[in-house]
Structure formats: structure tokens, C-alpha cells
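User: Predict the complex with inosinic acid.
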Amino acid sequence: MGNFVVIGTQWGDEGKGKIVDLLAEYADYVVRFQGGNNAGHTMVVNGEKFISHLVPSGILQGKTCFIGNGLVVDPEVLVGEINYLTSKGVDISPKNLRISEKAQVIMPYHKQMDLARENKKGENKIGTTGRGIGPCYEDKVSRVGIRFIDLLMPERFKQTVRTVLDEKNFQLKNYFGMETVDPEEVIAQYLGYAEILAPYIADTSVELMKGILADKKVLFEGAQGTHLDIDHGTYPFVTSSSTVSGNACCGSGVGPKDISGVIGIVKAYTTRVGAGPFPTELLDATGDYMQSKGAEFGATTGRRRRCGWLDAVILNNAVRLNGLTGLVITKMDVLGGLDTLKICTGYKYNGTVMDTFPTDLDVLAKCEPVYEELPGWSEDISTVKEFRNLPLNAKRYVQRVEELTRVPVDIVSVGPGREETIVITNPFA
Ligand code: IMP
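Assistant: Here is the predicted structure with inosinic acid placed in the model:
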């Protein structure tokens, strides 16, 4: 019983969306605390598939959803999602969707800067989603960002946009050789969004605490994954926010005493989208098998995800960094049909075996994964409802993950559908 954080343990795309949907049933509030529309997961709205990037899918279950202060929000995307959901008959209003007045606003120049930086980097590019996430967080930290509360103060907003664009346009034109942005156009466009969004904007920290005191259960929904974290990830091949569980507090304005546990989502193998190191990556037929059977394409950019074996070194990094109290293994069904499965248990470097994740990417590049092998299974497990009914080798795989991480596995997901789930322990129950 209590309030749980759900976090990705790898490089994002672990299947958090499905698990958040599942657990949201037991929560009253669903809260996003970092990132922006670089994230994305599929909702099915009246039989039609729709990828939401900002509105938590808890909205479909009648939950109150919060967009916390730790996010960077593109109002155009948010208004688009609200309009889409409303047109499909979903009840979405300022009653059940709350936006922190402290959340940062993604401006058109952030998107331009994101693309311009990536182009300039050429071969060394990070492979960002191009949504302006990094430049918006940069402005937040530089203290020239625009917050949702500023949208409600038109005169101050106009002044800030004009001042900020003075510098940005200089950079866009003279450094990047790009088109400049007209401040008056941006002002008109964004004051339009402000009018629509004003009733949703609030001090969400205060509202969350009121709910917690009234015994409402909160699900904190992480985006991306632990190894994309700005501090702890494979820097600089990371996103620009803190993706670990500690940021659930900072990014929502709720203190740590109100968090009961942290659930880490582990894909049964590993994927990564965008550039950056990936020690267990498979550039062979087995990697292709995972990619096609797991339909591994990015939800936001449609890019093909890189695939590889499960890596216990990164999992243990996630266990430590997030204080994980339970694990959920997703996409177990995808591994079916492979004769032998491998789990990386350490990295060989300079004749020694390391069991911690190196910070230096040059060291990481020279690391060779040390694998242990486990026998696979060939049965279709997607209809299995109880852990005890899994094939022996699938059970062994799950148990080995528990042994290697010393964290209990609460849920095993065996297919994309809600019913394709084995619940061993429900953290909310
Ligand atoms: P950005 O967040 O758009 O700045 O992208 C930085 C890195 O994070 C890139 O490698 C992206 O592919 C990756 N990334 C950002 N959001 C996600 C996500 O939701 N899933 C997986 N990778 C992501």
C-alpha cells in the first residue's frame, strides 16, 4: 500500500507504458516528473491506436494525471493531445489533468537549436529525438527558461521572449547559419496556448500533498531509463533530465517520506535507440530476431532500436541508483524460440573482470561482456497466467535475474496485452 515510482532500468523503452497502465488501476493519481515529449507510449482510444507523449495514459482509467514541475512541455503537443483525446470522447478537463506552474515551456527556438546542434555534431551526434528537450533544460539551468506560470502573465511573457530571442537569434543566425525566429509570432502563438491551458495550470505540489494526506495513492511514472540519466547515464549519450527515482521527489514536489517503493522495469533483453555505448549489443541474426519479434521501433521517432542480451551489470547499477524494491520483467515472450540465452554478469577490461559500470566511455568501449548461458524455451508463453505454469527454463531465467540483482520480480509480462501478464506480487495490493 502506498505511493510507487515506476522507473526504466536500461536505456528506456522497457515497456513502462503497459505496466503503468496496469498499476494505475490501483492508484488515484498518476504523475510524470521529468522529460517531455521525447517519451511516448501507445494508448488504444476507442479501438484506435494513439501515441501519447505527455498525457499519462491513466487519463483513460479516470485517474487524475499530473504533469510535474520537472518536465519540459511543448504546449503545441499538449494541446494536440488534449484535443485528440477529447474528440475521441475521453473525459479530459482541468479536473483530471493538472500542469505544474513550474514546468518549463518548450519554445520553437529550443526545437531549432536541438536540430542545429545535432547537425553540427555530424558523426558524433547523440541521436536526440529532436523535440527541443536538451535546449529547454539548458535554459532552465541558465535561468532564462519560461515556465507555465509565465504564460499566465502576458506582459512579462512578451518581455522575456523578446529578450531571450535577442540572444538566441544571434546564435541561430551567426553560429548555426539558420533562420531566425520572429518574437512577435511566437508570442501570439504561445498566448493562444496559454488561453487554452490556463485552467489546467496549478501548484501541483500543493495539490498532490492534499491528495496524499487524504490517502490518495500516487503512481510516479518515469520516462526514458536509468542509463539515459543526465548524471548517471552514459554521458554525453543521455537525455537532459534526471531519470532515476530520486527525481520523482524533485520533479513533482513530493518529499521522500511519501514514497513507499520503487519498481524497476527490465526488458528481458536490452535495447537502445540513438547513439552511445551498448556493451551487449548484438549485430547478428539473434539481434535481428529480437528486433523483429519484439517490434523494436522507437515510439517517438520510429527509429529501429538496437538490441542485445540482458546485462546484469547495468541492472545492478539501476538497483543501486534507484533503490529498487521490486522488478517487472517485460517482453519475456520475445526470447521464446532461442536455444540458448545469455546474461552479461561482468565486463572484462585489461585482464580483470569488473562488475560495476565504468564512467569513462573509452574504458566502456574496451570492455568485453562476460556471459553466462542459460537454456531457452520454445513454448509460446503468452497465454500463461501463473508463474508456476511457465516452462522450467523461463522460470529459471526469472529466478536468475532475482539472484543476480537480489530484488524480487513482482510481475512478468508475456505479451503486449493487459491480460498477457503474470502478477506474482502486486505492489499496490
Ligand atoms: P533527447 O531526450 O531527445 O535529448 O535525446 C537524447 C537521447 O535519449 C537519445 O539517444 C534518444 O534516443 C534518447 N531518448 C530520449 N527519450 C527516449 C525514450 O523515451 N526512450 C528511449 N530513448 C529515448
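The first strand starts at residue 4 and ends at 8.
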